[in-house]
Amino acid sequence: MTWIEKARKALSNGSVIVLAGRCIIHYEGRAASKLGEGERLVIIKKDRSILVHRPTGHEPVNWQPKKSKIEFGEEDDAKIIRATRGNELLKIYFLEEPEVVVFDLLDDAEFEMYASEAEMKEAVLLEPNLVEDGFTPFQEERRAGRVGRVDVFGIDREGKLTVVELKRKSANEEDVNQLRRYLEVLGQEFGRKPRAILAAPSVTRTAASLLKTSGIDFKCLTPKTCMEVLRKKRGLDFHV
Amino acid sequence: MTWIEKARKALSNGSVIVLAGRCIIHYEGRAASKLGEGERLVIIKKDRSILVHRPTGHEPVNWQPKKSKIEFGEEDDAKIIRATRGNELLKIYFLEEPEVVVFDLLDDAEFEMYASEAEMKEAVLLEPNLVEDGFTPFQEERRAGRVGRVDVFGIDREGKLTVVELKRKSANEEDVNQLRRYLEVLGQEFGRKPRAILAAPSVTRTAASLLKTSGIDFKCLTPKTCMEVLRKKRGLDFHV
DNA sequence: ACTTTTATTTCGCCG
DNA sequence: CGGCGAAGTAAAAGT
Question: Could you tell me if A150 and A180 are in contact, meaning their C-beta atoms sit under 8 angstroms apart?
Answer without folding.
Answer: no
